[in-house]
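Posting here for the record, re: adenosine-5'-triphosphate.
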Amino acid sequence: MSESLKDNNTKTVKAQKLVGVKGMNDILPPDSARWEWLEAQVRGLMARYAYRNVRLPIVEPTALFVRGLGEVTDIVEKEMYSFEDRLNGEQLTLRPEGTAGLVRSVVEHNLLYEGGKRLYYMGPMFRHERPQRGRYRQFHQVGAEVLGFGGAEVDAELILLANDLWKVLGLKDVRLELNSLGQPAERQAHRAALIAHLEQHSDVLDEEAKRRLHSNPLRILDTKNPAMQSVVEAAPRLLDFLGEASLAHFNAVKAILDANGVAYSINPRLVRGMDYYNLTVFEFITTRLGSQGTICGGGRYDYLIEQVGGKPAPAVGWALGVERVLELIKEQGEALPDLAPDVYAIIPETAALPVAMQVLQTLRACGVSAQMHAGAGGAGGEGMGSMKSQFKKADASGARFALVFGADELAQGQVSVKSLRDGEGVQRSESLSRVAEWAHSLQSSL
Ligand code: ATP
Ligand code: MG
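Prediction output follows.
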């Protein structure tokens, strides 16, 4: 400590460069433009479906996830960022998903008192996983959840909503897989048959499967281990254990999807990672992102609200992985949104700055995007740089027009407007006192 202090004081040693946490990414321009565009599309579509936005804490009590997600799940067993609050000893966790926190909030604020709710959220989630393409430690989800309604029509509505989002975002090659997990009693009957089947093939089960055989055998069906695929494929199907009511619910969802031309395939082994699901479960999958191909998953969770201490109420929802969706858009070769300003202001002398900045303010108030040339500053009075270098910067910015605040024009109450893209060099003069009148001619036609 004292050693490094001394180093600092004598200014002989450069401070060590700090880097971000592994698996947690900076989202920078120009990529951030694609994020903003996606978020705007989400907001627009959610409004058209009358879903309302919620913004929830990133930190929740650890017990919420242990109780809500289930103890024998990938997330709770090995992926949570949990810590103890130094000041009061509370056990806290960075949220690994959004549903549990949303349900906690709905119960805490008694939101279902006046009827069901359609809600959505977007934001960062945290899971301690091995970072790779499409899998990060801080990643982002958009989630849509409908609480307080038990009918198949809201399951279908949520699927239609997600499907519309893929259309709005221009995603290709996304397919929908559907399954029903039935009700707890049906799962109990299936579970016994499943354990018996898996025990008969215990020689091919891996360590994780053996561990889960009696605690969470359904999750074994979700294994990615190739050696276990044939055993898992031959396992008794939960769908065959469903009673009349569960089948009717499933068929009603399918009928609405059929009527709306949404294609799907039934995957009897689709189980999803969290314990809280029942009846409908679904995933949207693409083949273009390798093994991280699931871009969105969800289903019904009629027992979660009660599990976290609320008055029993049905619910259903989904969450999509923003990074995976954006990666798919990139994979499809879509161009980034255009970030170029309408105007780049060229300022030959610093004396022109007050007037120039006043003009730019008026332009911005009129909706024109304007980037001002900035000089090196500093005590030496380096000024704004040569005209040549300023024009270079203007070209690099992609602006359609350069405004040149030259001393001669300013003296006549004018500024010259130069086209940078088409008809290179076309130039005209505009009045400094009537900026609002010509401002709109600079705006891109987007
Ligand atoms: P996977 O099987 O790929 O681990 P999951 O079942 O754990 O996914 P969910 O909990 O259902 O995923 O989360 C919904 C969506 O969030 C996923 O379909 C995926 O698009 C995204 N997602 C989940 N974990 C990550 C992660 N670590 N990094 C990036 N995206 C993720
Ligand atoms: Mg996972």
